[in-house]
Write a structure and sequence with these properties.
By secondary structure, the protein is an alpha+beta fold. Helix content is about 30%, strand content about 15%. It contains four helices and three strands. The protein has a three-stranded antiparallel sheet with strand order 1-2-3. The protein starts with a strand and ends in an 18-residue tail after the last helix. The mean pLDDT is about 80.
Length: about 100
């Protein structure tokens, strides 16, 4: 079922993104691991970009809402670009994953 991505607004197939990553949901975050308030429905392209731009710790500590994600200039620039190029084929390009695990 298609719906609108909560990040770029495009009507496409969606995936679940945990605002506080499941791998970081221990101790004080354990209660919200599977809580509906901890996830948003977004397209594959926005999901891959989020995980390419931010580490799991950054997502947990700093970018754990849509508003906070959009406050990052680099990510906001991507979203604006994505809205202008809705038919760009991301599957034909490789995006480096700068994810840091610490």
């Amino acid at each position: 079922m298609n719906d609108k991505c909560q990040i770029c607004g495009l009507d496409t197939k969606l995936t679940k993104h945990h605002l506080i990553p499941r791998v970081k949901c221990h101790n004080k975050y354990k209660k919200i691991e599977n809580d509906e308030s901890n996830f948003i429905m977004i397209c594959d392209e926005c999901h891959r970009t989020i995980h390419a731009y931010f580490s799991e710790n950054e997502l947990r500590d700093k970018y754990n809402t849509i508003e906070r994600l959009m406050s990052n200039e680099k990510f906001a620039a991507y979203v604006n670009w994505r809205k202008k190029h809705p038919n760009y084929n991301f599957n034909s390009t490789k995006m480096s994953n700068t994810r840091k695990h610490y």
